[in-house]
Amino acid sequence: MPAILGRHRGWVNTVVGIPARNEVATIASVALAADAGLRRTCPTGGLIVLADNGSTDGTPDAFLAAATTEEQLVVRSEAQGSGKGTNVMALVRLALERNADRLILLDADVRSAEPAWIDRLASAVDCAEPTLAVPTYRRNRYEANTTNHLASPLLAALFGRPLQQPIGGEFALNRALLRRVAQWQHPASACLYGIDIWLTANTVREDHHIVEVPLGVKLHNSPFPKILHLPLQVLDSLFHVALCLDRPLPADLDVPMARREAVATAAVPQDPALVTHVAAAVAGYVGANAAEVWRFFPSARGLPEAPWGARIRGEDWPHVLADAVDVLATGRFGQARDHLIALYVNRVLSFWDEIDGLSGVEIDALLDRQVSDTVKAVADRSIVFGRTPLPTGFDRGHWTGIE
What we know:
single chain; 403 residues; alpha/beta; 13% strand
């Protein structure tokens, strides 16, 4: 059982949950933003919960020291073998135990959290039917890579729902959806960073209501240092949910995706030394697995060379993603996932080169075309999953061990 401490009462109307590990620099400001938002939105009873995953930097103490008016609670879990998803599921269980009307999730490392976020997210799920609220933000053009090149196009191609940022972190779930979440098959990767796409994909799979909520600019720690293992966990969870389907259910191409100011004016490039390190790791992987990579991903074979490896353009990437879905349907779960990570990094580095000099509006349009073209590329193939046996655990594979 997780350890629980802090001041709390029984029933609450709204739980604001903050999953965290070692976020001492920002946790108090996130808690205070949640507190101010709850006072405005939920005068009848709110609870702010830190779900801490083995922090060693004093994150729980900093959270409890924040001068909030609303009740506070810390739920602790061990870091070993778990992660963000463990925290989120602890928050789901607690919200159900407290009979809360809704659970609002905030990332612990965000530096731009505003009290208004609480009202916008809470209002979006103020209904009886199972409902999930997901955010839309303006982001640095060099960030949101897993969202832009994996989660968003694959969600539209596999589950029929184009969403701008399906793994944004700031979510809201009403009580009816919380009850459904507790019933879903939970792969091991959903105990990690796979949790966001697992929530979104399952909500779409069951045809529940999803509301996109504009939250303005999101400033937080760059996820790029995690580019080799975070998307691995996201893909693993996404593929688990996809294999619950009989076949892909592509989005209606007559309803094109319209991105809303997704790219911020400010642009902060990633650390060149880290980019070089990542590119070298990927090149080594592709070199060691070249025959299999090109056999399973024929759309990537013969693409132009680039300083980082292969130049995968916007018109090429949707067909590479369709190759991955094809490979998944043949039962090669690990190859579909791990080989796609290598090609994904090549797509990200190609994308950065591709958008040099483009405006935010032009980048938004490029990403919208990438989603639409992915939907078409998957729809043009006769892919059937046929109840392919699912992996029982999370094989962290090649990429998790590379930092």
